[in-house]
Amino acid sequence: MKEFACAQVVPGCDFKATAESDDEILQQVAAHAREAHGMDEVPAEVAEKVKAGIREV
Ligand SMILES: [Zn+2]
User: Fold this and answer.
1) Quick check: 38 and 46 in contact, CB under 8 A?
2) How many angstroms is it from 14 CA to the middle of ligand 1?
3) For range 26-50, the mean pLDDT
4) What pLDDT is stored for residue 31 in this prediction?
5) Distance 39 CA to ligand 1 centre (A)
6) Which of 13, 34, 42, 57 could form a disulfide with 6 if both were Cys (CB 3.0 to 4.6 A apart)?
7) Nearest by Cα to 52 from 1, 44, 20, 37
8) pLDDT, position 29
């Protein structure tokens, strides 16, 4: 599985996405960013940070 912790982009946020693929992680992060952080869309620079922060677990 792959995991991404939102705290790597938004310090203090305890959301973690876990999924089998980077694409699913990005989908979960996009939904979370919209609901929790008011981002209608994930900016490209944030998406890059997310991709860079995905870990194998
Ligand atoms: Zn968050």
Assistant:
1) no
2) 7
3) 95
4) 97
5) 10
6) 13
7) 44
8) 97
Mean pLDDT of 12-34: 97
Closest C-alpha among 50, 43, 57, 56 to residue 13: 50
Tell me, what's the pLDDT at 56? 97
d(C-alpha 1, C-alpha 45), whole Å: 24
Residue type (1 letter), 25? I
56 C-alpha to ligand 1 centroid (Å): 19
Where do we find the tokens 């599985």? 1
Alpha carbon of 33 to ligand 1 centroid (Å): 6
For 12-31, what is the mean pLDDT?
A: 97
